[in-house]
Design brief:
This protein is an alpha+beta fold and 644 residues long. The chain folds into 3 domains: 2-66 and 606-643; 72-292 and 564-598, no CATH class; 435-534, no CATH class. The protein is 44% helix and 23% strand. It has 10 helices and 32 strands. Strand 10 and strand 11 (264-267) form a beta hairpin. Helix 2 (69-100) runs parallel beside helix 6 (276-312), helix 4 (127-190) runs antiparallel to helix 5 and helix 6 packs antiparallel against helix 9.
């Protein structure tokens, strides 16, 4: 009789456990990371009664969670990629909005500045027109500074995001290590899996992948070893390691992610930190923010240098050569904190036309100096300094470099922040030309005429002090300044003649000599003369240099004479816009993939309330039936007692 009671008791116990587990599932249906749990039961060992084996009921072997390791790995990976893309997108949207703003962007300021130069060229002696040039120049400088400061704020924001994410990573790592210990203790003492703790640990790994891509390797069947980057341990069994942020050895304003082990802190390569918010923010900084900051500075330097060069060729209202219109900031030079040498490195921009939107690394290996353009990794090696690369000079002003020493040179990164006006007085604007073509000699008998004089960047260093007269005789021109070579440019090419030469006359050909260029056209007669002399009067009303300054707006003064300021800025706007659109598209795709992966994972591991409701009824009926078995057993027992 007792066997009937025991069978009913095991059935009652199994049904009760089933009801408890089902209730637990229902209670956690909305709990993040919770995996549906089911009971695993088996037939109790049967007893041999001689005539055969009779079962002894059922037994609950364990309560397991419905868990798919492959789907969990896919979910973690998808979460890492999605977080990285969204981190990039949220940041680059700020740059895109700033550059594309039709009123606050750079284009309106450049246009307004050159509009004022054009107005000056029509009224060079008008104080109001000159004041407008000063005011629009100050507005342009202010716009460069404003955009540069905004980009610098974005750099600071990257530092803040890295600090926050690193703190989260450390918290998750400690919790995973703690759960490893708790899970190991629970498993060792009971032999059964602590399902809720396992779910909590998997959820922490998922949260960790929001911050950085993490790989899990299971040790001893129940402990997680977590690795980041190229196999860097973050959690090893019950021990966790920490990340931190440290100032870059070559740029104190820039934070890098570092790994702490014992008393050692090692900066991690950005390439090794993929995925999650950290990977996305680092990729955004190196591929988008740095590029934008350097390109904006490149435009500022190119505009300022080309404008200064042309401004120096002109005459002010007082009849003196023009000076700098803008102050151009020098490249920023940062030596590594690990340097052991005593070198002081200096750098300057020699030619903005070939300047690249990039930082540079100068490294010494004990024999050679290697200069690396960081934007694309192009390098040049030299046995000595000074040297020039991409229009940037590199030299050691004092001391010496030891093997392994390195410096980061940033010609353009902070140029927009630090550009400024060099003049403030309207009389200092050099709108006049320094040389003037004399009217053809009144005794000339031919129909030849001479064009207006233009000057190039060589003129200011050796201005014309005395007039010179070009003579025409039998198809040749002579009388050019002594000691100066002459270059004649026609539609078929350029030819340079030695100083003192007579050059063949070609009507309309451009003649360049002593920093001046002009052309003679028509049909001069032998003996005709054309005199060129310095401009010594009416400089305040002369507009010829203003016309050349205005022409810089569309001149190809950047990227090896292939692009104007506006061209380069438009390319920057296009780059940022295309990158933003690319991230929007890939971000939407990855978000959908993450959603699908989560749905697939939840379809197997998640709680279905309809299914649990059915299970609840099933276990309820099983409980009632088990109770009926025990009731019948009790009745039979009472009957036996009454017979006695």
């Amino acid at each position: 009789m007792s066997s009937i009671f025991n069978i009913g008791k095991t059935a009652l116990n199994a049904a009760q456990v089933g009801i408890n587990v089902t209730g637990h599932n229902i209670a956690n249906a909305s709990t993040d990371g919770y995996s549906r749990q089911v009971i695993v039961q088996s037939t109790a060992q049967a007893q041999n009664w001689g005539f055969g084996f009779i079962g002894q009921g059922t037994q609950v072997d364990t309560v397991k969670r419905v868990y798919n390791e492959l789907l969990t790995k896919q979910l973690n990976n998808s979460q890492s990629i999605s977080s990285a893309i969204n981190a990039q997108l949220s940041n680059i949207n700020q740059i895109n909005s700033m550059l594309a703003d039709s009123s606050a962007g750079l284009s309106p300021a450049i246009q307004d500045f050159f509009n004022s130069i054009n107005d000056l060229s029509t009224a060079a002696n008008d104080p109001a027109a000159r004041q407008a040039v000063i005011s629009s120049g100050e507005a342009l400088v202010s716009r460069f500074q404003s955009l540069g400061e905004r980009l610098q704020e974005m750099q600071s924001n990257v530092n803040a995001q890295l600090t926050t994410s690193v703190a989260s990573v450390n918290t998750y790592a400690k919790e995973i290590a703690r759960l490893n210990e708790a899970i190991d203790a629970a498993t060792s003492s009971t032999g059964q899996p602590p399902n809720d703790l396992l779910d909590q640990r998997d959820q922490l790994v998922l949260q960790l992948n929001k911050e950085i891509k993490a790989t899990v390797v299971v040790q001893d069947g129940n402990k997680y070893n977590v690795f980041i980057g190229n196999g860097i341990p973050l959690v090893s069994g019950m021990k966790s390691y920490s990340l931190t942020t440290v100032a870059s050895p070559t740029d104190p304003s820039r934070l890098e992610v570092a790994y702490q082990s014992g008393g050692t802190t090692s900066i991690l390569s950005e390439k090794s930190l993929q995925g999650g918010t950290i990977g996305g923010v680092l990729q955004y900084r190196s591929q988008s923010l740095d590029t934008t900051q350097n390109t904006l500075g490149q435009i500022a330097i190119a505009l300022a240098q080309s404008f200064n060069t042309q401004h120096q060729q002109g005459l002010t209202a007082n009849g003196i050569p023009g000076g700098n219109f803008f102050n151009i900031p020098a490249p920023e030079v940062n030596g590594s904190t690990y340097n052991t040498g005593t070198a002081n490195v200096e750098s300057s921009i020699t030619n903005a036309n070939v300047l690249a939107a990039s930082d540079y690394r100068l490294r010494y290996d004990g024999t050679n100096y290697t200069i690396t353009r960081i934007s694309d990794g192009v390098t040049q090696s030299f046995t000595s300094l000074p040297q020039t690369m991409d229009g940037v000079s590199f030299s050691i002003s004092s001391g010496s470099m030891n093997s392994g020493d390195q410096f980061i040179i940033r010609p353009t990164a902070n140029a927009a922040n630090n550009i400024s006006m060099a003049i403030s007085q309207i009389a200092d604007i050099a709108a006049g030309a320094p040389a003037v073509a004399g009217v053809a000699d009144t005794a000339n008998t031919g129909s030849g005429s001479i064009s207006s004089i233009k000057v190039d960047s060589n003129y200011a260093s050796a201005p014309l002090t005395t007039p010179f007269t070009v003579n025409y005789s039998s198809g040749n021109l002579s009388g050019f300044p002594a000691g100066q070579a002459i270059t004649v440019t026609t539609s078929s090419g350029s030819t340079t003649y030695p100083a003192g030469s007579s050059v063949p006359y070609t009507a309309g050909a451009s003649i360049s000599v002593a920093g001046l260029s002009f052309s003679i056209s028509g049909t001069p007669a032998t003996g005709d003369q054309f005199t060129i002399s310095a401009n010594t009067s009416n400089a305040s009303g002369d507009n010829r240099n203003a016309l050349q300054l205005a022409a810089l707006q569309t001149g190809k003064t950047m990227n090896n004479s292939t692009a104007s300021y506006q061209d380069v800025f438009n390319q920057l706007v296009s780059f940022v816009g295309n990158r933003t659109r690319e991230l929007q598209v890939t971000g939407a795709a990855e978000d959908e993939l993450l959603k699908q992966t989560l749905t697939t994972q939840q379809s197997e591991s998640g709680v279905n309330l309809d299914e649990e409701a059915v299970n609840l009824l099933r276990y309820q009926q099983a409980y009632q039936a088990a109770g009926k078995v025990m009731q019948i057993a009790s009745t039979l027992f009472d009957t036996l007692l009454s017979i006695r």
